């Protein structure tokens, strides 16, 4: 069996969630790695959309930021930022928003603003919202990818930057948010999906070699575990080759 790291397993699992022919609003970092892996592998017709206005970008390496010239050079079209949001995102034309997070809570709410209870004097001030709140609100569904620890998976986020499912099922509908919100969370340990009755994140798959107790211990709330937890298939040699080629091109 080909050896792989936990980060590689996470990137591959996230990439597999994207289907051929989908449109995906891509965040920089882990979401961009997964999206570009999918497009170069099983989903060649995946349309990547970046906040800077690059539609149908086909980067030959992982972009450093949404302003990376590689995105514009390889895009089908480059439009203004207002057009990306007003015409493509807000009317619900984009299938999937792929986001990262600094903190994620049990209902899929995302914090990328501050760590600590005092907004004016936080322990850590994070990069902020960017377009993530609108991505979380308006894409047909949202996938979140991040490494798992009790520091990142918290009972309640310190600041709600991007709305997930609020305090439970029905909150999005009450606020008039059109998208389905987070439907999948991919970590370096496994996969979580919202419970259909409560919208609370539930462990549904474990990556190879990971036990449910490990995931529970790495979660800052009492994580629910599905009765029939599956096992994520290990990365194939082809998936790892594409992923490693992307990273080498970006070095």
TrEMBL record:
Keywords: Transferase
InterPro entries linked to this entry: CoA_trans_fam_I (IPR004165), NagB/RpiA_transferase-like (IPR037171)
Source species, domain of life: Bacteria
Chain segments annotated as coiled-coil in the UniProt record: none
Transmembrane region(s): none
GO molecular function: CoA-transferase activity
Gene3D superfamilies cross-referenced by the UniProt entry: Glutaconate Coenzyme A-transferase
rRNA-binding is among the record's keywords: no
Keyword Transferase on entry: yes
Family per similarity comment: Belongs to the 3-oxoacid CoA-transferase subunit B family.
Protein name: 3-oxoadipate--succinyl-CoA transferase subunit B
Organism: Amycolatopsis coloradensis
């Amino acid at each position: 069996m080909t050896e792989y790291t936990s980060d590689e397993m996470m990137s591959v699992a996230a990439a597999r969630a994207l289907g051929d022919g989908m449109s995906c609003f891509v965040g920089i970092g882990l979401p961009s790695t997964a999206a570009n892996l999918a497009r170069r592998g099983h989903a060649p017709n995946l349309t990547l959309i970046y906040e800077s206005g690059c539609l149908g970008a086909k980067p030959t390496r992982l972009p450093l930021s949404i302003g990376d010239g590689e995105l514009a050079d390889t895009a089908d079209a480059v439009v203004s930022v207002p057009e990306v949001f007003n015409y493509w995102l807000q009317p619900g034309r984009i299938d999937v928003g792929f986001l990262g997070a600094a903190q994620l809570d049990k209902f899929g709410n995302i914090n990328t603003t501050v760590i600590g209870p005092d907004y004016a004097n936080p322990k850590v001030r994070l990069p902020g919202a960017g377009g993530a709140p609108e991505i979380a609100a308006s894409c047909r569904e949202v996938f979140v990818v991040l490494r798992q620890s009790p520091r990142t998976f918290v009972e309640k986020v310190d600041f709600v930057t991007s709305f997930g499912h609020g305090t439970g099922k029905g909150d999005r509908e009450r606020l008039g948010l059109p998208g389905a919100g987070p439907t999948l969370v991919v970590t370096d340990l496994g996969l979580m999906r919202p419970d259909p009755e409560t919208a609370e994140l539930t462990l549904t798959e474990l990556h190879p070699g990971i036990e449910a107790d490990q995931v529970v211990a790495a979660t800052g709330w009492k994580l629910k575990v599905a009765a029939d937890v599956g096992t994520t298939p290990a990365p194939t040699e082809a998936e790892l080759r594409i992923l490693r080629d992307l990273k080498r091109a970006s070095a």
